[in-house]
Design brief:
The complex is a heterotrimer of chains A (about 150), B (about 140) and C (about 300). By secondary structure, chain B is mainly alpha-helical. Helix content of chain B is about 40%, strand content about 5%. Chain B has one domain (about 5-140): DNA polymerase, domain 1. Chain B has helices at about 5-15, 70-75, 85-100, 105-110, 125-140; strands spanning about 30-35, 40, 55. In chain B, helix 2 packs across helix 5. In chain B, about 40% of the residues are buried. The longest helix of chain C has 23 residues, at about 260-280. Classes of the chains: A alpha+beta (about 150), B mainly alpha (about 140), C alpha+beta (about 300). The interface of B and C includes residues 5, 29, 48 and 110 of B.
């Protein structure tokens, strides 16, 4: 599955880059995510993601690894986790790229990956839709965090 | 126990193995049983719902040694191959004929639409049920 | 085997609501269970408490007043099929209920359960949308009504709050002289597409379901055809079908790609229009198309 968004943020690219590395704040921006912990600075983090897909409740402990970092503009990470209660396994690659456009910044987010397990069989793009909704809300919260 | 499924209670606790577990998602009809005369998928039906109701499994179709009309018709028409769908087919057919003693072929096809068979190609099953319709009319 | 749970049987809405709010994350409402039990068997939900609403007074009533038709949440699909009142006030609803899933699901599954689950691949919501369906919800905070179009938010997602019980749906049958048709297409156990067409002297209603995230009314298409005399609608069916294909919102899934669903919509809207318009001219055409049921 794949979800992508371009988020315009009224802040300088450098300020936005700094915010991306403020992991606790970033985790707060992602809806349903909490309990961010640093395992190895700038390398590994853990978090928990709780989401509802229809009547199904998902609670996934995530292992986040920064796979590449090209300061001050591009960041890629991998997030993996498994919800043992419903047997859903998530493996996502996320890239975040900052560009400037007429004095403001634009953050391009692309999330690609797989959801394995019976949840994946719900079909009908439910997962994509959920991911898209999450990225929309992420954009709203990120703007508030960067501009506020 | 409220969380028991009717199919498990019938097969495991009551030893009535006629109803089969096949798709387990109520689409194939192999687990069909009648609850107060109405076909239900026992695989997706809580056993507690059966309380106070008449449950009919394929074991209850024959009257002692006398086959039910649909059973006799299935045998006569060669409507059984592996037999796995047969319990469900017979019960659905019996329920249909109880409700509508002279169904048209279209009505039979519609009612049996949720009972799947991988062996026979359905023709003989429909022929068998249709022949019962005629018989019931003749008897009345 | 399912994980153990307690089964409560409240006899009033108040009791049901209280049970629901006592433990919202662990309780679910239960009626027919034809969707709920499937999810539980898959292990996707593991409630500790099932609240059986079948004994709640009046949830299983079908009533008509002031030209509207109200179907209670715990009415089974077979109940809708056989209701003399439904057959009299809106025979298409009775006809479509006859084709939901299979006879076993029709004996056990309920209208309320179907709408509350909001599986995109289902028939009733598509039809009820064309009948201006309004959902009634009840909680201790009060009762409220939500138009069906707003109630269904997306696949498996509704506007029902955690403490609310869906009690009924109210339908607005079309005016006299409206003829209609419902067409469903599918090779799987759930439909791949459902189309409702209702046409009358000054009305054209077209809804399409199963191919997008929610059932949808094709307002642009309706605008193109509104006010057209019935024979003209028949003659323009192909063109209007093509317009439907352009307007419809589609999502690819295992039933087919987005392109496929768009093409399917065009063909099926055309066919449904032809049937509805023919009926409007007093003709009963019975076209047979593969894997298609026309009500």
């Amino acid at each position: 599955m794949r979800a992508a968004r371009e988020i315009a943020v009224a802040a300088t690219p450098d300020k936005l880059w700094a915010l991306l590395w403020d992991v606790p704040r970033m985790v707060e921006c992602m809806p349903g995510c909490a309990e961010a912990k640093e395992v190895a600075p700038q390398q590994r983090y853990t978090a928990r993601m709780i989401q509802k897909v229809g009547p199904i409740r998902l609670s996934v402990p995530l292992d986040v690894e920064i796979t590449s970092s090209e300061p001050p503009r591009r960041l890629a990470l991998q997030a993996k986790g498994r919800d043992p209660a419903i047997g859903a396994e998530i493996s996502m690659q996320v890239t975040l790229e900052i560009s400037s456009r007429e004095g403001t910044s634009v953050l391009a987010v692309v999330a690609e990956g797989r959801i394995l397990g019976t949840l994946g069989s719900l079909g009908h793009g439910v997962i994509e839709r959920k991911a898209g909704d999450m990225l929309d809300e992420f954009g709203v919260r990120l703007r508030k965090a960067a501009e506020g | 126990m409220p969380h028991s499924l009717l199919l498990d209670v019938l097969r495991e606790q009551l030893g009535l193995k006629g109803a089969k577990r096949s798709c387990d998602i109520q689409v194939c009809g192999a687990c069909t049983v009648l609850v107060d005369g109405a076909p239900v998928s026992a695989c997706t039906y809580l056993a507690v719902e059966a309380e106070g109701r008449a449950i009919r499994t394929v074991e209850g179709l024959a009257d002692g040694e006398t086959l039910h009309a649909v059973q006799a018709a299935f045998v006569e028409h060669g409507a059984i191959q592996c037999g796995f769908c047969t319990s469900g087919m017979l019960l659905s057919a019996a329920a249909l004929l109880e409700e509508n003693p002279s169904p048209t072929r279209e009505q039979i096809l519609h009612y049996l639409r949720g009972n799947l068979c991988r062996c026979t190609g359905y023709q003989k099953i429909i022929d068998a049920i249709a022949s019962c319709a005629t018989r019931e009319r003749a008897r009345a | 085997m399912l994980r153990p749970f307690t089964l409560d049987r409240p006899s009033t809405l108040g009791e049901a609501a209280d049970l629901l709010t006592a433990d919202p994350h662990e309780s679910v409402l239960y009626a027919g269970g034809t969707e709920l039990l499937l999810l539980m068997k898959e292990g996707l939900i593991r409630p500790r408490r099932l609240i059986d609403v079948k004994a709640v007074r009046d949830l299983d009533a079908i009533t008509a007043e002031n030209g509207t038709l109200t179907i209670g949440a715990t009415v089974r699909h077979r109940g809708v099929e056989r209701s003399a009142l439904v057959q009299e006030r809106c025979p298409l609803v009775s006809g479509v209920a006859r084709h939901v899933a299979n006879v076993r699901v029709r004996n056990v599954g309920t209208v309320g359960g179907n709408l509350a689950f909001a599986d995109p691949h289902s028939d009733l919501a598509t039809l009820f949308l064309a009948l201006d369906g309004t959902i009634h919800l009840w909680s201790r905070r009060g009762a409220r009504e939500v138009p069906l179009a707003d109630f269904i938010r997306g696949p498996y997602e509704t506007a029902r709050e955690e403490d609310e019980v869906l009690t009924s749906i109210r339908l607005q049958p079309w005016p006299a002289k409206t003829t209609s048709a419902y067409l469903k297409f599918g090779v799987y156990e759930r439909p791949t597409l459902g189309v409702t067409v209702a046409c009358g002297p000054s009305t054209l209603r077209v809804t399409v379901g199963c191919v997008g995230p929610r059932p949808q009314r094709l307002f642009e298409l309706e605008g193109r055809g509104a006010g057209e005399p019935i024979p003209a609608l028949f003659a323009r069916a192909e063109e209007l079908g093509a317009a439907a294909a352009r307007e419809v919102e589609v999502v690819g899934d295992r039933h087919g790609s987005a392109e496929y669903k768009r093409a399917l919509t065009g063909a099926c809207v055309k066919r449904a229009l032809q049937v509805a318009a023919a009926r409007g001219q007093g003709q009963q055409i019975q076209p047979r198309y593969a894997h298609t049921v026309i009500v």
